[in-house]
Amino acid sequence: MSQVPAELKYTKSHEWLRVDDDGIITVGITDHAQDALGDLVYVEVPEAGTEVTSGDACAVVESVKAASDVYAPIDGEVVEGNPVLADAPETINDDAYGAGWMFKIRGTVDGVELLDADAYAAFVAEEG
Amino acid sequence: MTQKTCLYQAHIDAGGRMVDFAGWQMPVHYGSQIEEHHAVRRAAGLFDVSHMCAVDIKGPQADDFLRTLLANDVAKIKPGRVLYSCMLDAAAGVIDDLIVYRRDANDFRIVVNAGTAEKDVAWMLQQVAAFRATVSVRRDLGVLALQGPQAKDKIGAAGLPAELVEAALACKPFGCAFLGDHLLGRTGYTGEDGFEIVAPLDEIPNIWKELLAAGVQPCGLGARDTLRLEAGMALYGQDMNESVSPLAAGLGWTIAWEPVDRDFIGRESLEAQTAANDQPKMIGLVLEDRGVLRAHQKVITSAGEGEITSGGFSPTLERSIALARVPRGAQTEAGSRVEVEIRSKRLAARVVKYPFVRNGQSKID
């Protein structure tokens, strides 16, 4: 079974969000997503300063099998892309919720429809 | 309705991630495709390829039949030798690519792709009518591929008849040994030494179990694809199909033009294509920028646009490689540059002579 940490929020497109006190939201892909993709070999993250709108394809993860878009879960400005992923994309396979974070956005999750851990786990189970 | 090989449960037990491939439930990997790839380059890996289909061709005119049916010429191989060939239609489209194992003067076994097996057999039956030969589908046999530099050290653990194993160990690449219904070919689809094992279905689970117990890594179709791409081997349905000539798929070397009076199916069309000199050509690419080359990406050359037919990440070279079909007039000497369009960006790629990797070693630098 893939991990679904209780303290995070989730999307139906398999991103996770960590809301920090300073209004910075960290985004990555879930353990379920990395597991389904397989060994990652290339990751493209947005540059700092990029304005994103919820639903934009703003990052790319490519595994040995296929390329997948990663979507901005909220509106805001990218403040940082994870610099280690260019040389070590497998970091996401190894630690999807920690060192494998993808980008940080300044914005708010207020009014954004997100799943909590239980709802995401149920969604994944249902999706089969 | 998807079919299962006799190893379906063994794959699940080994942690196989099952996917539908050509109507068969097959393992794509058992945890890490990249580790399975490296196991074959550095040690030994085992693939279940029982979805592929063995077909026996026998009879007083079996040799004549295959010399008409296939673009390569079985007259080039003696008993105990193996030949790779395309089977063409009259327009020189590729019906399938296949391996022929010669057992005797008029006794052959062919292994064909899973997705094409039905149409292949229908075509063979249609063509064989003019010959005193028989086409027998051997779905009572399974196929495994033991591949890698340590394959020769592991084959003895498979529980196969000692006489057969000894004969196969004495074979050079593209040699083979038969014993009863068993066949061991010194062949594969990885660019490494190894064996393709054809044996009765009821023996396959035990061969699988014994080889895994001997420390051989089970490998899925994912690693099979990255290994064959590194080895520069074409994949049917991706690099060629019925609308593609072998001349446009980098398979011109598999056409036996001599003797000139051998009238194989597709010859006339191939000769017309050669005279017109208008067929596109296959090249190897290495991506210079970061990213991953994938099938159907557009390739921009000095003579117009082409397309990647197979692309991916090479675990051995740790960068992206591809096979691409480009216009005949394009400048494609090794070292020349083309551009590939990936997500509407144009990235630089270098033309290389393939195979990219052989026997564990890079061939491109």
Explain how this protein is built.
The complex is a heterodimer of chains A (128) and B (365). Chain A is an alpha+beta fold. Chain A is built from three helices and nine strands. Chain A has helices at residues 31-37, 91-94, 117-127; strands at residues 9-10, 15-19, 24-29, 40-44, 51-52, 57-63, 67-71, 76-81, 103-106. In chain A, the strands form two sheets. Chain A has a six-stranded antiparallel β-sheet. A three-stranded antiparallel β-sheet of chain A has the order 4-6-7. The longest helix of chain A is centred in the C-terminal third of the chain and has 11 residues, at 117-127. With 365 residues, chain B is α+β, with helices and mostly antiparallel strands. In chain B, α2 (33-42) crosses α8. The longest helix of chain B has 12 residues, at 117-128. Classes of the chains: A alpha+beta (128), B alpha+beta (365). Chain A binds chain B through residues 38-39, 41-42, 44, 60, 62, 64-67, 86, and chain B through 28-29, 32-34, 222, 226, 290-292, 294, 312-313, 315, 320, 343.
Note the topology:
The complex is a heterodimer of chains A (128) and B (365).
Chain A: E1 9-10, E2 15-19, E3 24-29, H1 31-37, E4 40-44, E5 51-52, E6 57-63, E7 67-71, E8 76-81, H2 91-94, E9 103-106, H3 117-127
Antiparallel strand pairs in A: 1-2, 2-3, 3-9, 4-6, 5-8, 6-7, 8-9
Chain B: E1 3-4, H1 8-13, E2 17-21, E3 24-29, H2 33-42, E4 45-48, E5 53-58, H3 62-69, E6 82-88, E7 94-104, E8 107-112, H4 117-128, E9 134-137, E10 141-147, H5 151-154, H6 162-169, E11 176-179, E12 182-185, E13 194-200, H7 204-213, E14 217-218, H8 221-230, H9 267-276, E15 281-287, E16 298-301, E17 304-314, E18 319-326, E19 337-342, E20 345-352, E21 357-358, E22 361-362
Parallel strand pairs in B: 1-3, 4-14
Antiparallel strand pairs in B: 2-3, 4-10, 5-8, 5-9, 6-7, 7-8, 10-13, 11-12, 12-13, 15-18, 15-20, 16-17, 16-19, 17-18, 19-20, 21-22
